[in-house]
């Protein structure tokens, strides 16, 4: 019998941060790539997309590193990554993309205390942005 490991407190906190990050990034309810919006009763599914992979912890929870994408556009990431990258470049511009690469394509250790502060900051930002809507 294979034992399943219980997620550590740090993993749970990381997941909470990513959920909040995604909620905030998706708040505009408008695709940054094609412009599709949530209008009326039409159901549009939006995803939070990390411009620079979330495997790099420097940008994992940064809102600067997120785009709201409709499901149709986000779906293209896996089968056609080059086309998807071109779409991202058109949406944010090459200068912004290069700036994000420079800032976030580094791996750094984030302590549990720092992660808790990130979580608190994301919570406050989510509440602030919800009030503005």
The value of Rg in angstroms is 16 Å
Residue share in helix: 40-55%
Terminal-residue CA separation:
50 Å
How many helices? The count is: 5
Biggest β-sheet, characterized? 2 strands, antiparallel
Structural class by secondary-structure content: mainly alpha
* Number of separate strands: 2
Shape: globular
Description:
There is one protein chain. This protein is mainly alpha-helical. The protein has one domain (27-126). 50% of the residues lie in helices and 8% in strands. It has helices at 9-26, 71-75, 81-92, 94-104, 112-132, and strands spanning 46-50, 66-70. A two-stranded antiparallel ribbon has the order 1-2. Helix 3 (81-92) crosses helix 4 (94-104). The N and C termini lie far apart (50 Å). The mean pLDDT is 93.
Topology:
Elements: H1 9-26, E1 46-50, E2 66-70, H2 71-75, H3 81-92, H4 94-104, H5 112-132
Antiparallel strand pairs: 1-2
Helix pairs in contact: 1-5, 3-4
């Amino acid at each position: 019998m294979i034992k399943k490991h219980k997620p550590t407190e740090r993993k749970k906190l990381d997941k909470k941060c990513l959920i909040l990050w995604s909620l905030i990034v998706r708040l505009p309810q408008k695709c940054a790539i094609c412009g599709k919006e949530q209008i009326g009763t039409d159901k549009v599914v939006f995803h939070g997309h990390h411009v620079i992979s979330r495997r790099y912890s420097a940008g994992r929870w940064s809102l600067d590193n997120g785009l709201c994408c409709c499901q149709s556009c986000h779906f293209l990431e896996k089968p056609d990554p080059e086309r998807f990258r071109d779409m991202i470049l058109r949406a944010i511009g090459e200068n912004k993309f290069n700036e994000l690469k420079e800032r976030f394509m580094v791996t750094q250790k984030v302590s549990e205390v720092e992660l808790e502060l990130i979580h608190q900051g994301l919570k406050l930002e989510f509440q602030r942005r919800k009030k503005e809507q």
